[in-house]
Amino acid sequence: MSDATRRRPSVLDIVAIVAVIGALAFSLSSPRVESQGDAARMLFIHVPTIWLAYLAFAVTFLASIAYLVKGKLRWDHIAGSSAELGVVFTTVAIIGGMIWGKATWNVYWTWDARLTLTAIMLFVYIGYLALRRAIPDPETRARRSAVLGILGLVQLIPVHFSVTWWRTLHQTNTFRPRDIQMDGPILAALLASVAAFTIVYAALLRSRVRLAELELRAHIAAAAVEGPVAGDAVTAPAIGDGGAKP
Amino acid sequence: MSDRFWPQALAIARRDLDRERRSGEVAWVTIPFGAIALLLVPLAVGVNQDVLSRIGTGMLFVVVMLFGVLTSIRRTNIETPEQRDAVALLGIDPVAEFAGRTMASALLLLVFEIVMGAVAVPLYGLDLVGWGWMFAVMPLTALGLAELGTLSGSIASSFNAGPALVPLLVTPLAIPLLLGATQTVTAIDSDRGNLSWLVLMAIVVLVLAIVGVVTARPLQETR
Amino acid sequence: MSASAPLVEFEGVAARIGMATILRDVDMRVRPGESVGVFGSNGAGKTTLLRVIATLLRPSQGRARVLGVDLSSQDRFDVRPRLGLIGHAPALYPELSLVGNLEFSARIAGASQESAMAALATVGLAAAADRPAGEASHGMQRRVEFAREIMLSPDLLLLDEPHSALDPSAIELVEHIVAGVLQRGGAVVLVSHDVDRVAPMVTRTAELAGGTVR
């Protein structure tokens, strides 16, 4: 790995590591929730990850608009990188929620509005990432995924309302995420987790955007090198004397 | 909006409808396939009439949504890059093209919905109480799905994996239409009533129209 | 149109498709009244060159102007109705009739519906007007595309392998169309791998090799 690509941890990376360690310590030392037991500590992962998923997709939305307005590929890198992180955090949030649900309510899944919306959101942005993966040209990829990045979030608002109303009509379960009693120390631990995860998101986003820019630079360099153009791969057919042989 | 907007939009719609009339794909493939799907569900879940009448409206709109997506994919699939280039060079207004394609798809989807409804009612023993709302629900569903399909088709066109991506792009975003359509009919007795669902569907249709108009020009570029 | 301003001006133009560089460092000027034949072997980038001129593919580098419009600006969309492109593969809708395809083009471009039938008659296909394009031969479909350009009278006509699938009378038609464009003060750029066949319809030639035009 060359010096250009090797990177020492930045201040942000170090702060992120320290923040996570601190939040972990906070979470483990917070009082036990009587009604939920130790399973409630999953909240310190579940809540921050879902918050970050929303933040990440909001960043994708804003960066997509910025790309269409400004035309700078850096905005596309931010949009795509943030969406990747959003999908990861959404997946972690869903899995964390399922583990917590099984431990506390003995079900992996309920059709709670928020859970349903989160699952839909995951599929929307998996589609976004699949689209990005399918387009090799950077500018075409940026343009098409910017449109989807805007459409995705804008459309998630009516999806949110429709799923919430639908669950209101059919509410039969007692799955209540807010059933947990939020004492001061628990709230403090939760806020510490949210803050730590947000710093982790910022650090990861910065690294991923940098990687995307390096990839683009390599792409441009490969295109600019004075080597063969695509047409140079076509040569005259090799036909012997007397015409082509079968 | 230029004075060529509506002539161009109507020309695009007419082209798509003419092509459909001559190929007969919706009439002879999509509709029968949708009807078979409606037939398969009772075979899978059992023929308890109470169960079927409860799930029938939902199944109708699931089939409409999924097969509506297929219809949209087809529109993308059958257009060659040369055809797209030729239309671009004729000086098509991208927004007119979006409007024209959407109008044609919406009309085809509306016909599909009506026929599927006619199949679902006897198969699932559906009570037609509340079905007057279908005069509003079906056009809104058709228009929303058409807008989504046209947008997704434009996003996913011109590269190899494009047509395969359209279902993944469209289906999650069509959920408000699915829920609005089913709940408008079944939520007659709820406190909220049907109007909220219809308003939600109308908002979705409006939002999709705005996104389609604003992004039509960037999406027209092939590179 | 200004009498002397070039209709096509390329300086150092490069073009990529995906990750592949197709054109590099293309310098080219086409003036009104010129018919330029660009020759190259298979895969040389002839079609790509035409698509860049037609504003369908944006250059990745260099300065490109077509009909006085910078191809990096949004105005390039406005110049499209003044261009005509007949590609190697037909762009007709197979389900629509031959005249139906032309009438569609007329509606989009704002030409009269009657001009569609008149153009079809000019290319000798009036009797086959109602035949679905999918049932017409490749040569017939190309004639319909020439009919479209007769109907729309572009200022800059771009032809990709103009002789492909055409019989001698149709080739005369192509020469007539090219002459008509030049007489109106327009220009023609055609690409081919066969220098001899297109010689009667060009005023000068250029070679496309190594991704660049010499």
Produce the secondary structure layout.
The complex is a heterotrimer of chains A (246), B (223) and C (214).
Chain A lengths: L10 H19 L13 H28 L2 H33 L7 H22 L3 H33 L13 H41 L22
Chain B lengths: L4 H19 L1 H21 L3 H29 L3 H9 L4 H31 L9 H23 L5 H12 L1 H12 L8 H26 L3
Helix pairs in contact in B: 1-5, 2-3, 2-5, 3-5, 3-6, 3-7, 3-8, 5-6, 5-9, 6-7, 6-8, 6-9, 8-9
Chain C lengths: L7 E10 L2 E11 L4 E5 L6 H8 L7 E6 L2 E2 L5 H4 L3 E4 L11 H12 L3 H10 L15 H15 L3 E5 L7 H16 L3 E6 L2 H4 L5 E6 L2 E2 L1
Parallel strand pairs in C: 3-8, 3-9, 6-7, 7-8
Antiparallel strand pairs in C: 1-2, 1-4, 4-5, 9-10
Helix pairs in contact in C: 3-4, 3-5, 4-5, 5-6
Structural domain tally of chain A: 1
Helix content of chain C: 25-40%
The greatest interface here is: A-B, 34 and 37 residues
Strand content of chain A: under 5%
Count of extended strands of chain A: 0
Shape of chain C: globular
Report how far the terminal alpha carbons of chain C are from each other: 27 Å
Low-confidence stretches of chain C: none
Helix content percent band of chain A: over 70%
Distance between the termini of chain A: 49 Å
Average pLDDT figure of chain A: 81
**CATH topology title of chain A:** Four Helix Bundle (Hemerythrin (Met), subunit A)
| Unreliable sequence segments of chain A | 172-176
Report the CATH architecture of chain A: Up-down Bundle
Anisotropy-based shape of chain A? globular
Protein described:
The complex is a heterotrimer of chains A (246), B (223) and C (214). Chain A has 246 residues and is mostly helical. Chain A has six helices and no strands. The termini of chain A are far apart. Chain B is mainly α and 223 residues long. Chain B has one domain. Chain B contains nine helices and no strands. Chain B has helices spanning 5-23, 25-45, 49-77, 81-89, 94-124, 134-156, 162-173, 175-186, 195-220. In chain B, helix 1 (5-23) crosses helix 5 and helix 6 runs antiparallel to helix 7. The longest helix of chain B has 31 residues, at 94-124. Chain B is globular and about 55 Å long. The two termini of chain B are 25 Å apart. Chain C is of the alpha/beta class. Helix content of chain C is 32%, strand content 27%. Chain C is built from seven helices and ten strands. In chain C, strands 6-7-8-3-9-10 form a six-stranded mixed beta sheet, with helices on both faces. A four-stranded antiparallel beta sheet of chain C has the order 2-1-4-5, with helices on one face. The longest helix of chain C is centred in the last third of the chain and has 16 residues, at 168-183. The two termini of chain C are 27 Å apart. The model of chain C has no long low-confidence stretch (mean pLDDT 90). Chains in contact: A-B, A-C, B-C. At the B-C interface, helix 1 and helix 4 of B face strand 6 and helix 3 of C.
